[in-house]
Amino acid sequence: MPLLQIQDLVAHYGDFQALFGINLTLNKGETIAIIGANGAGKTTLMRSICGLLRNAPEACILEGQSIGAFEAADIVTLGIAMVPEGRRLFPSLSVEENLVIGAHGRDTGGYWNLKTVYDLFPILKEKRDAPGTTLSGGQQQMVAIGRALMSNPRVLLCDEISLGLAPVVIRDIYSALPRIKDAGASVIVVEQDIGQAMKVSDRVYCLMEGRVTLSGNPSDLTRDNIHAAYFGASK
Amino acid sequence: MIWVDTIVQGILVGGLYALFAAGLSLVFGIMRLVNLAHGDLIICGCYLILSLVNVLGLNPFLATILAMPLMFSLGWALQRYVLNRTLGDDILPPLLVTFGLSIIIQNALLEGFSPDSQRLPAGALQTAAIDFGPITVGVLPLLILLSAIAVIVALNQLMYRSRLGRAFRAVSDDPITAQMMGIKPATYFAVATGIAMIVVTIAALYLGLRSNFDPAIGPTRLIYAFEAVIIGGLGSLWGTLAGGIIIGVSQAIGAAINPEWQILAGHIAFLVILLFRPRGLFPRAFD
Fold this sequence. Notes:
The structure holds 2 protein chains of 2 kinds. By secondary structure, chain A is α/β, with parallel strands linked by helices.
């Protein structure tokens, strides 16, 4: 049984339909990447999975449990945590408070706690009392990832975590991924950087205009068919 | 020495204004909700305490302890089933609904308790005073100021030292992201309004002990509360205490110059501060 199964998922913003029958699966221990151009529906897909957009109950199944119609606050308690696009740290909370609040809805006593998060990102321990939003972009991203990890998620959703960061910082952020997987999380990464997505994932899904246009193992995909699926035309 | 006495009396009155304002400040700080019925809810609290005193023969302080859970429940239900539905991008619905609520509460109190003014029995506390040399301080006004400080300290501890307060601040910053932490904004907003109603009950006790009240005086208490919150900076609890004291001192100085200027002086102080510090004296950095 897949850990997470998305089936025939649709999403609307008012009259505008953003997703058209998305199907994907995430197996335990796997990392999958969602790639696609701006407006392809990647963030909408993430928001649907984490419950910010309501779906049909069967559209999202976590280990056999239909959770598509659950609220976001309930979904995190089941073990799906999100690192949102733009980090979205809480400005009135310190770095440490931002981390601690990640465990507000789900405090399992699992591997991830303040100590292990500080071990993963040591710079955060030095900045623990600073307001979260005063940190650099990369450090803020570390807080956002650490905050999501504090709930010891079974599924970690990472929405554009490299956006706006310097290459060296992106490398640091992604270097944490193996340890996150080793601690038991399966990961869905949304990326515009195709190279990065191919490097970190076991499988790739390409979205275009709200539909999956390509999926497969990174080693099986050629530059041309990715190009076609990404932009909708052959090179 | 008369001026020192005037300022001391003003500070003591400011404690009561800070109590009027603390609940309003808490609710505004967390959910950006301006509750125009806040003053009427204070008066509602006065009548609830009075009823408990009359029916059960209790001391007003004991009656207040009994009234607190009732007022918490009222605030919780009000927020959960009425006010949460008005929250959103448009600021008009909560203003209209709480304005309507204000009228409903006033008329319900008028129907239930008549327009006659009432007072809570303060007993010996009414006239007790402590001499500090040339200045005499009433025990009741001193108790009110100390209670106001205690309430502000308690609310600050709640907001900055507790799990609940952390969730309040998170949901205030970003209710969407807060949901991804397992926080349901509607539930936390209801708890926040319930807590604000506990503070309202304390304010109601001291208002009722210190002066007469009738069903129509709620809106005036709202204005004082509003001014204290805005002077202090929206959402700042210590700022709210400072705001209450500034209004109290301004009124006392105004009254010392000319008794007719008492109320006006408080409003003028508010306008002057608004002119030079439009965001109040202690605004939150990230608002």
